[in-house]
Amino acid sequence: MGWVESLQRAIDYMEEHLLEPLSIEGIAKQANVSVFHFQRTFSILTDITVGDYIRRRRLTLAAQELSNTSSKIIDIALKYGYDTPEAFSKAFRRQHGITPSQARSYHGTLKSYNRLMIQVSLKGADPMNYKIIERESFQVVGVKREFSCVNGENLVAIPKMWDDVHADGTNDILMKLNKGEIKGVVGVCVDKSSNQSEPLIDYWIAAEYNGETPDGFMQLEIPASKWVVFEVHGPMPDSIQEVWKQIYSEWFPSNHYKPAGTPELEVYFDGDPWSPDYYSEIWIPLKRD
């Protein structure tokens, strides 16, 4: 089964079980990938978290029932996972801008978030510059923090970590420490989902380095891999986010590779990251589909 079909299978599973308790572990299992990699791919392609998708779909269906049936509001609230009418009303108003009672009496407009169908683009309107390389294992040194993947917490916390390492000078130190082939500072996600009851990752900000680990830093070994390395041109963070989306919506569907599931790298080189001429890279380890 290809990765697109696997992702669609997980989405179909969510839809079929919207009225039941859903766990991210159970959803990711349908796609045969880890929690972290499923959440990451889903967010890249849809710009929302898995939890947001489930919540939006439930409230969309709840609005349809309010408009088209005579079921009690409390019964609809319970059906879609809300323990109290107050909690349901708060969530409903946040999405639709009106209360359940107003929706029942046809006052105001409703927002409909429709069922997702994964569609990929193979036209390649915008060219992607990349190369395939093979490397033996190598070491990076840097700092790490552990983040939860629940409700997309890692998506908020990782940018804050980058702000911190720029503010305290760690980023500059790592840039000077670099003694490897990768001449920049790297962001590395290490999936720990298989070892924990809660989906967790270690996120590293590091530099390739051979030798004794400098004081104040830790060492991580990146396994030997075949890598696809994509060029990114333009200011952060929009440019790198756009290339990630191209990778999963265009490049992987048109190639005989799939992500290996081992750590992926974002490489940030020296320069002004907000410049339209800024250059960075995305490194993804590969395996055959």
UniProtKB/TrEMBL annotation:
Keywords: DNA-binding, Transcription, Transcription regulation. The keyword DNA-binding applies. GO terms for molecular function: DNA-binding transcription factor activity; sequence-specific DNA binding. It comes from the Bacteria. Coiled coil: none annotated. The keyword Kinase does not apply. Residues 8-106 form the HTH araC/xylS-type domain. Pfam families: Cass2, HTH_18. This is AraC family transcriptional regulator. It comes from Neobacillus novalis. The lineage of its organism: Bacteria, Bacillati, Bacillota, Bacilli, Bacillales.
